[in-house]
Amino acid sequence: MRLLRPLLVLAVCSCTHAIAADELKAGAFAQDITPTHLPSPINGNMKGAMASTVNDPMHARCLAVSNGKEELILCVVDSCMIPREICETAKAMAAKDTGVPASHMLISATHSHTCATMTAVFQSDPDPAYLAELPARIAAGLATAHRNLEPAEIAWNKDSDPTQVFNRRWLLKPDQSVENPFGSKEDRALMNPGIQSPRVSEPSGPVDPEVCILAARSLGDHRPIAVLANYSLHYVGGLPAISADYYGVFANEIATRLKAGDARYAGKPAFVGIMSNGTSGNINNVNFGGPSTIRKKAPGEQIRAVATSVGDAAMRAWDKLSWKATAPLASAERDINLSVRKATAAEGKEAQRTLDNTAKDKDGQFSDRKAIYAREALLLGSYPDQVRCKLQAHRIGGLTIASIPCEVFVEIGLDLKKTMPLEEHFTISLANGYNGYLPTPEHHKLGGYETWRARSSYLEVDASTKITAQLKEMLKEVAK
Questions:
Q1: Which residues of 125-154 are buried (b: 16+ CB within 10 A; e: fewer)?
Q2: Residue 349, number of CB atoms within 10 A of its CB
Q3: Strand (E) positions, 116-223?
Q4: Which residue among 47, 155, 294, 404 is the one 20 to 30 A from 28 at the CA level?
Q5: How far is CA 201 from CA 14, 168, 452, in A?
């Protein structure tokens, strides 16, 4: 693997002492990326939808950290998923502008199901005009965070909020079965089975309740610069308009809690709160084992409740922070090739017959689940037999951060935390591209929605094993 070239970062400093080469600087910026033309396609469901109004803006929230030798720029984009091509183009633009290597940049999606479509999945296709302008807008956020670098302290810690995360895959009872879109009744896991469903016995796996944070504050007046949080929750939803979901409300919540808008900070770069998506591929916000009578909530009410609850945990972590004015930084990046699960020739012919014999709805889309997955099988036929999967490992002081371009199952994140080489660790999902769901081989055996072959789930059965092995090596590498 090539060695990353050292970086010399020049910044104007108003503090009274000279800044040593290894002392930290941090900068942040929230770049608005809301579509300028409405209605806009939004994805997250099997049918494409259009949003005509904006409840709250979409952002690319960026944090840059430098120690004079290395610089990292971490960016979380309000999006259901973001394609690799947009990430690569935005990084190249920002690298040319800042001198920071693209391999030192991480761009991830939050997985809000109410954001403008960036990646074609199921029957939702993006607006080409919006895609064309996105890389430059994201790159502007990365570059501005870099330009906002100032002498800083950083810290990392964690707390817990088990009240908002539940495993959404439940085991079917031995006498129960369901038919999947391919005509098989062998699946043993059912996603979102319904509250107190008599068909299921227990969740098929654990949750990760940790709320991890990486924080930065100015060296002189301790002005909060940014908080990057990580929580393994799929999304919340419930709004009929473009929205950043609880990720955006959390960002505002943390700013309020930290009094980041205080008048004494006038004229300084604005504080940026950031919530990244952890390993939440099989985790959501619904307790299917809970009470059978649940009050219907107003649009946005649950989003606010989750943001407040997770904000409480983040603030508990903030109160335990131990600030550092110096810290090592390191990055490692690898592309690995993984096989694509495709339909056989016979399955492809059957998929075509299904489409030929299934009528579309008035909106020009399929509602029949078998037809939807038949269409996906044919679209996957144009994929190469192997795809590249970009993995990253970053070190910021005693914290390591891994990134995976998938909707990662929680067991994978817990395994990486169990074997972390330094003080703390978290994994950011949906990062630097989109390669669908990432179940473990054990979950592939159980079947269920997240394993069904489609553009949302197509990697080989052993993909998680190969990815985890690579990341463990990379985390050891950056921890040296």
A1: ebbeebbeebbebbbbbbbbbbebbbbbbb
A2: 11
A3: 150-160, 166-167, 169-172, 189-191, 200-203, 210-218
A4: 404
A5: 62, 12, 22
Beta bridge partners of 387: 338
E strands, 324-379, are: 329-339
Separation CA 200–CA 189 (nearest Å) = 9
Rounded Cα distance between 139 and 62, Å, is 10
| Token couple for 326 | 């110096």
DSSP 162: G
| C-alpha–C-alpha distance, residues 149 and 62, integer Å | 12
What one-letter code names the amino acid at 163?
A: T
Residue 149 contacts by C-beta under 8 Å, 6 or more apart in sequence? 9, 11, 25, 26, 27, 64, 66
Give backbone dihedrals phi and psi of 164, rounded to 5 degrees, phi first: -115, 5
CB 139 within 8 A of CB 43: no
pTM over 0.85: yes
DSSP state of 240: S
- State the Cα–Cα distance between residues 172 and 257, nearest whole angstrom: 43
Q: Counting Cβ atoms within 10 Å, is residue 320 exposed (0-12), middle (13-18) or buried (19+)? A: exposed
Q: Is the peptide bond before 162 cis (omega within 30 degrees of 0)?
A: no
pLDDT in tens, the chain (480 residues): 333 333 333 333 333 333 445 799 999 999 999 999 999 999 889 999 999 999 999 999 999 999 999 999 999 999 999 999 999 999 999 999 999 999 999 999 999 999 999 999 999 999 999 999 999 999 999 999 999 999 999 999 999 999 999 999 999 999 999 999 999 999 999 999 999 999 999 999 999 999 999 999 999 899 999 999 999 999 999 999 999 999 999 999 999 999 999 999 999 999 999 999 999 999 999 999 998 766 788 999 999 999 999 999 999 999 999 999 999 999 999 999 999 999 999 999 999 999 999 999 999 999 999 999 999 999 999 999 999 999 999 999 999 999 999 999 999 999 999 999 999 999 999 999 999 999 999 999 999 999 999 999 999 999 999 999 999 999 999 999
The helix (run of H) or strand (run of E) holding residue 427 is strand 424-428
Type of residue found at 138: I
Return the axis-axis angle of helices 463-479 and 410-418, rounded to nearest 10°: 30
